[in-house]
Fold this sequence. Notes:
172 residues; alpha+beta
Amino acid sequence: MNLKQINETLDHKITNGSEYQWNCYPDARFLEYESDYAHVSVIFNTTDQTIYEVEISVKRDAWPKDMRPYRWLNPDTKDIMIAEAKQRKVKYRKAWDDVKYIDLDLEEDFLEKAKAIFNGEPFDTRIQMEVDLDDETLLKLAVEAHKRDITINKYIEEVLQAFIDKEKLSTE
Length: 172
C-alpha cells in the first residue's frame, strides 16, 4: 500500500502530521486525516511513500453504534514494530482503554472499509482473507458448492465459519 492510495481514498483531507518517533520504521512520518465520521492515522516512508501502518477510528457521535478501529500493518515491517512495542512495554493490539484493533490482512479490505467509514457510508464488517488452495482441493470445494447450489466463495466462507465456531467452543 502506498500514500497515494490513502490520499485518494480519503480525498486528501490531511489535518496534521509530524515525524514518527519510534525506530522500527526508517524515514517515517506520521499523518492524520479527519472527516465528519472518522479519524485516520498513517505512518509512511518519506522516501518511497510505502505505508508502514494505517488505522481508522470512527467518531463515536457520528455512528449509531460503537465500532472498533480497523488497522492494516505492512507485513514486511510488522514484526519489527511488534518487537519495538514489546521493548517499550506497549500493547500493540490495544487501540485505547479496553479497545483492540481489528487487524486486516488485505490492503483492498482496509481501503474499502476506510473509504466507507470516512464518508459515513454502510460497509461490510466481515474480514476478507486470502485463501490459497491447490487445484485438487479447489475442485473438491467447487463440486461440494455445486451440490449445495451456492457459489464456491459462499461455501468456503461457510467452511471457514464452521471451523472458527468449532475453535471458539474448544477454547471456552
